[in-house]
């Protein structure tokens, strides 16, 4: 939404989400999956979902990167955050 609207409130929300995810998933070597995210202090699992790196971090990167990195008039992102050139671009 931030990239579409330019409204900094969306970037702030993304940063808040990133901080909370980092707080609860950070381990010594990587990021852990969580047992139950409805709990105030969820238990960490001894695993990391592949979509954490392949999708979630990629979307955070795009939110905080320069807009020129991925021009949304030229590219569309699929659900796994892979950029695909628009046919009409």
Offer a concise description of the structure:
This protein has 89 residues and is mainly α. It has helices spanning 2-5, 8-25, 50-64, and strands at residues 75-77, 83-85.
Protein topology:
Blueprint: H1 2-5, H2 8-25, H3 50-64, E1 75-77, E2 83-85
Antiparallel strand pairs: 1-2
Describe the structure.
This protein is mainly alpha-helical and 89 residues long. The chain has one domain (2-85). 42% of the residues lie in helices and 7% in strands. It has helices at 2-5, 8-25, 50-64; strands at 75-77, 83-85. Strands 1-2 form a two-stranded antiparallel ribbon. Strand 1 and strand 2 (83-85) form a beta hairpin. The longest helix has 18 residues, at 8-25. The mean pLDDT is 90.
Q: How many separate structural domains?
A: 1
Biggest sheet record:
2 strands, antiparallel
Total helical elements: 3
Task: Say how many strands there are.
Answer: 2
Query: What is the spatial order of strands in the main beta sheet?
Result: 1-2
- Mean pLDDT value: 90
**Rg, Cα atoms, Å:** 15 Å
Strand content: 5-15%
- Report the helical percentage: 40-55%
Q: Give unreliable regions as ranges.
A: none
Tell me the distance between the termini: 21 Å
H-E order: HHHEE
What's the overall geometry? elongated
The secondary-structure class comes to: mainly alpha
């Amino acid at each position: 939404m931030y990239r579409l609207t330019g409204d900094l409130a969306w970037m702030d929300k993304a940063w808040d989400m990133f901080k909370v995810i980092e707080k609860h998933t950070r381990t010594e070597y990587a990021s852990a999956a969580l047992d139950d995210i409805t709990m105030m202090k969820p238990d960490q699992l001894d695993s990391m979902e592949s979509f954490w790196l392949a999708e979630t971090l990629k979307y955070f990167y795009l939110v905080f990167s320069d807009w020129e990195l991925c021009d949304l008039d030229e590219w569309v992102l699929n659900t796994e955050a892979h950029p695909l050139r628009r046919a009409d671009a």
